[in-house]
Design brief:
Two copies of one chain form a homodimer. In chain A, the strands form two sheets. Chain A has a five-stranded parallel beta sheet, sandwiched between helices. A five-stranded mixed beta sheet of chain A has the order 6-7-10-8-9, covered by helices on one side. The N and C termini of chain A lie far apart (63 Å). Chain A is 29% helix and 22% strand. Chain A contains six helices and ten strands, in the order βαβαβαβαβαββαβββ. In chain A, helix 2 (44-52) links the parallel strand 2 (32-36) and strand 3. Chain A is α/β, with parallel strands linked by helices. Chain A folds into two domains: 5-127, Tetrapyrrole methylase, N-terminal domain (Cobalt-precorrin-4 Transmethylase, domain 1); 132-226, 2-Layer Sandwich (Methyltransferase, Cobalt-precorrin-4 Transmethylase, Domain 2). At the A-B interface, helix 1, helix 4, strand 5, helix 5 and strand 6 of A face helix 1, helix 4, strand 5, helix 5 and strand 6 of B. Strand 6 of chain A pairs antiparallel with strand 6 (151-154) of chain B.
Chain lengths: 230, 230
């Protein structure tokens, strides 16, 4: 029997209307949907997708859980277990649609599962979603980059010792945990700063300068730091 | 009378199924659609969007034309003329839905029109689209960034004198015009390279190494250069 395909499908940043037609169709046409969390219906990805594609509620929902841990061995165990869960269905010839926030190629936990499942000989595929940084820029109604400006996307786990002094725009992802240090860097950079917390979610909040940003900003905080226009 | 709103709406990179539900709804619910080109029905944005949302064919289609010129005064004239075209409808209280390839915050010509129209006191809004680099990464079935890797997006107009030696992944946009120089840099960088030409279009082509990339690659070429996994 032919095995199924594991799809990593982006559901975008929060607003159900920012899901793609393809994401909705894949949910509609397949039976098995994987969600990143312990309880599928409690995941953010589920809550977004079910609003855009109500048939999701009738599907076989499987939880694939990744605890937030810095213990690499524990991470690896969880990724292996997640892959094994998906493979049970792939073996039966069923596709598995793994729904992931934002886009599946940008800091997605799906990547880890994908590597393992591919190593085991299964076929995988990716379906793009709207990234959090594009949505945040749209929310503050500003471009991220124009003309010859580079764009630098820096995740929270990256060392921020350098001083944001390359040309172009910086996007700082999920900086909540070290906001004090980040605010200092931003102030020194002289850049135009905007921050969106929980973009597209009911608890969304927007800040239009470094000074406005609270030291205890949430995990899902995204900062856009542009060069000042001369 | 209340004036209309100018919307910059991303239609994604080529595949009509990568349009968002919101882009389709805005086309459906509004009468005036602006397309970037001399003849609206000949534009790439139109050809993508009409497949996802056939009602587009019945709309009032307005051309907003930007010639590819390096003459900044000529550019400015064209942007002013484009803004004036949109404002004729905004004044009448009609929204204008400007369809743009990819995402409207990433190297979009919409940004120029938006600045002018805002300076004239009108309201604008942005609706995210799938970026070409996310779609290209999905096409080659690889992540762009994982864990603590930064992402650097470098447009063709940016000077490429430096040697792609920052940590993380580089995306080189529209590098077609100086492919010789770019291939040399890529080879020296020792990075894992993939290139997608015309992603999501019928004439799409994928290359999986620097050596495979032809010197005369097309304008819509997107290169992903990742650090080699140890």
């Amino acid at each position: 029997m032919q095995t199924g395909i594991l799809y990593g499908v982006g559901v975008g940043p929060g607003d159900p209307e920012l899901m793609t037609l393809k994401a909705c169709r894949l949910i509609r046409e397949n039976e098995v949907i994987a969600l990143p969390g312990k309880v599928p219906v409690d995941t953010v990805a589920y809550k977004i997708a079910v609003q855009a594609e109500p048939s999701l509620a009738e599907k076989t929902l499987i939880p694939i859980y990744f605890p937030m841990t810095m213990d690499l061995a524990e991470q690896q165990r969880c990724h292996e277990a997640g892959a094994a869960t998906a493979e049970e269905y792939l073996k039966q010839g069923k596709n598995v649609i793994f729904l992931t926030l934002g886009d599946p190629t940008i800091y997605s936990t799906f990547s880890y599962i994908q590597h393992i499942v591919e190593d085991h000989g299964y076929t995988t595929a990716l379906v793009s979603g709207i990234t959090s940084f594009c949505a945040a820029a749209a929310r503050v109604n500003r471009s991220l980059t124009e003309w010859n400006e580079p764009l630098h996307v820096i995740p929270a786990r990256q060392n921020l010792d350098h001083s944001l002094n390359a040309p172009g725009t910086y996007v700082l992802m999920k900086s909540g945990s070290k906001m004090n240090q980040v605010k200092k860097l931003l102030a020194e950079s002289g850049r135009e700063v905007a921050m969106v917390e929980n973009c597209g979610m009911p608890e969304e909040h927007v800040y239009y300068s470094t000074e406005e940003i609270p030291d205890d900003a949430g995990y899902y905080s995204l900062i856009i730091a542009k060069e000042k226009r001369s």
